[in-house]
Amino acid sequence: MKAIYYDIYKALRDKIIAGVYPYQSYIPSELALIDEYQCTHNTVRKALQVLTMHGFVQPIRGKGVKVIWQPGKRTRFVLGDIETMHEAASRNGLEVSTQVRVFERIVCDRSVAELTGFRVGDELVRVERVRRFDGANLIFDKSCFLASCVEGLTPEIAASSIFTFLEGEKGMTITTSNRTITMEYATAEDREVLDLLDFDMLAVMENRTFNSEGIHFETTQSRHRPDYFSFMTTAVRGY
Amino acid sequence: MKAIYYDIYKALRDKIIAGVYPYQSYIPSELALIDEYQCTHNTVRKALQVLTMHGFVQPIRGKGVKVIWQPGKRTRFVLGDIETMHEAASRNGLEVSTQVRVFERIVCDRSVAELTGFRVGDELVRVERVRRFDGANLIFDKSCFLASCVEGLTPEIAASSIFTFLEGEKGMTITTSNRTITMEYATAEDREVLDLLDFDMLAVMENRTFNSEGIHFETTQSRHRPDYFSFMTTAVRGY
DNA sequence: GCCGATTTGTCCGTATGTATC
DNA sequence: CGATACATACGGACAAATCGG
């Protein structure tokens, strides 16, 4: 992302998070931002639009652009943007270790197609990983990747970061991720793999990820122990 | 919303949902859309941007704009945009009835402030509602509204639709909603109020809603029976 | 491998409308 | 009423990626 509007977006976002522009205050006007960043109206507006859709500010006609973001009180694990497990973990000040339980090539049949959204006959790589942090196995990831998109992937890479591998070595760009969050009963397998204490249900987040070609190349089902699950997002009317 | 870009957005979105532009196909090019809607490049692009951020399409440089939306398989209840309980229900083909359990004015103290994000001393209206559909009490809503924003609200209105009242009679515009999804153990009160069967945990969605003035005027905690909870959203990298 | 046509991505400059103060 | 500030749209320019001849 090397666009002017994106630089402005990041600068404003970071100032809001740092408290330079506090909750309920107004950020500088469009005209002031034009002056500061030496660009046009439209470029500033694009930055403000992204800032708005991420829930940081709200523009009010005739008045200004008001900060509506407050620092989160929840510690625990928080998701909501596209980020790797390690990014999320370090943001929470945690060390994650990953154990790869399954790593195999399969051909997509009807039942897998139903679960993952891939087509019957697609060549897939199936990976199951257990995420351990805070001294317990807390997340169970069951993934399928389109084999043609992850050529060269090994169990060793899966244990560190698949996304870093894909975006680095394979030059792929992860773009869109469609998510569904539900709750499910823990299965016998969940109980065997995770440290569930006496929880009998899990927070399940399904993620269908598309690359910059618009190809659906990954479906991951992340099964979280309930006390470590927290998801944040923003909805904006009209946009 | 009476803007050209928004009309284009809606037209394209509806065609995608209707299957006119199926999954993995390309929608008409920007040039074709300019021709069709008699507007400029930029206006079309704004419509495409919104379509992208809602997870319907993904633009690919040099090729076109590809549809990545698939019809959801999940029945049950689905949330994800800003909509009223009744909108959501009718989308799922259900009749909802609402029972108002609590309706009172309170002054925000430290513990309420902690829970809701309002300031100590704010005058609030506290409402508790139980949503019944499919023959069972399935959702327990605990809300607080800024009293100054909901003058004239009655228990009768709360039983039908508070948002319709606010957007209609009071001319308020609901704009941004910051959401957090977690899982919690059911309390004795939950068990008393909801038909929980043998579920001992709930999906809890907290909603902090801002109006067009950027005023945080509502916090609602919706406690869902797990088997009727399903949340969908889209994350886009870069935007 | 090159070139030109097509398509999306970013940005500029301008004009007009609407809401607030 | 005028100044300020956000909202929408126009028209033009060039960059970057893709594809076919």
What is the alpha-carbon Rg of chain A in Å?
21 Å
Structural class of chain A: alpha+beta
**The CATH topology of the largest domain in chain A, please?**
Chorismate lyase
Report the mean per-residue pLDDT of chain A as an integer: 89
**In CATH terms, what is the architecture of the largest domain in chain A?**
3-Layer(aba) Sandwich
User: What is the N-to-C succession of helices and strands of chain A?
Assistant: HEHHEEHEHEEHHEHEEE
The largest inter-chain interface, given as chain pair and residues per side, is: A-B, 55 and 56 residues
Total discrete domains of chain A? 2
Shape of chain A: globular
- The DSSP helix count of chain A reads 8
List keywords for this structure.
29% helix; Arc Repressor Mutant, subunit A; three-stranded antiparallel β-sheet; 8 helices; 239 residues; Chorismate lyase; DNA-binding; alpha+beta; six-stranded antiparallel β-sheet
